[in-house]
User: What shape does this take?
Amino acid sequence: MEAKHKSIWIMVARIAALIFVIAITVTLYIFRNQVQQLQALGFPGIFLVSVLANATLILPVPGVIFTAAMGAIFNPFWVAIAAGTGAAVGEMTGYLAGFSGQAVIDKKEWYDRIENWMRSYGDMTIFVLAFIPNPLFDIGGMAAGALKMPWWRFYFWCALGKILKMLMFAYGGAALMHWFGMGA
Assistant: This one.
């Protein structure tokens, strides 16, 4: 009887996670223009924009472009920390979608390939997908959630990869603006 009760709660948690992910994705897509106004808040604004830019599933929001621009205005190191940790928080939506057990995307060849990578090299798969700018990270997050990777491990490797990627974009934006004589 106790196992049946536990499985009901797991199913409820999975459905709630899927509804949460869908609601965030739709809301962010509808209000994508207003999100850019958060840059006036400095580092907390950078964190929030990065959370929101990475909280969408499949619908792209150009968070790295924003990070590059903010790297030219603020200290690029702290921009990368704020943007990378925010991006990792936002990527939890893909993880939760996978955890929900519901198919958000058709399980095609790419999903199968990434899921196999997750089974063989879980932590490094998340790190590499988070570090390399690519549209496949959502699929990796969904696979991690579906395979029940502990959320804290997913977040750690995702944050590490995102911070390193954001370091490149923030310093790249600062260097580009400095080269054009427009940097801080």
The first helix runs from residue 2 to 30. The chain has one domain: 2-179. The chain has a mean pLDDT of 78. DSSP finds nine helices and no strands in the chain.
